[in-house]
Amino acid sequence: MWESRYPALPEGQLRGDVFALAGELGVDVTDVQVAPQTATTTQYNAYVTGLGDHHVVVLYETLLLRSTPAEVWVVAAHELGHVAAGDGSRRALLASLGAMAMTALVGAAATSSRVRRRASTQQVRIADAPAVPMLIALTVAAGVLVLPVFDSASRAFELRADVTALQATDDPRALRSVVARSAVLYLDEPDPAWPWRLLSGHPSPVERVALAEAWAARERCPARRPHC
Ligand SMILES: [Zn+2]
Fold this sequence. Notes:
This protein is mainly α. The chain folds into two domains: 13-85, Zincin-like (2-Layer Sandwich), CATH 3.30.2010; 87-217, no CATH class. It is built from nine helices and three strands. The chain has a three-stranded mixed β-sheet with strand order 1-3-2. 28% of the residues are buried. Residues 78, 82, 158, 161 line the site of zinc ion.
């Protein structure tokens, strides 16, 4: 059911490498497809869709047109790294736990006598008009407490996927250039101040480049660089 959505990437080095890496990582990939989105987006991306033993790697046509083969390869390896580590399930679990934690925090705060006095109501319920602004404020406050935990885990997932991409490609130069180009395209702050870093689900471009440079500093045999 996943095979027919977009045209398949033609047979070639990249397609073969994606299947080979998926096999190494234990990810069952049934197809590599190209999303023809040049007319609707300038986004520069790839993703893996599917469940169980049916995964499809989808590469944006924009990625293929604007990148070197080495850059496409590092992006595909990053996405396969997420699937191999089960990051989709981990994110869903964390989001559920975060929602429960926020609900518990709001519930606990809303039943405190001080909050009820401030809201000028006996019970803080969504049906009570005076309580609505207080409930909104409590929800925002709970989000400020809970979201950094979720975002911290998300940043760790992203850095791990970058490490998987570096292990697969041994091409830190390609990763660095993908990060730099994405930062320009998405207007990312290269090195945001700590409050923004805390609330970001992705490591900053500077952190990702630092990882690539640390990898480049290692003395390793470049035997696995088919696209360099
Ligand atoms: Zn990622």
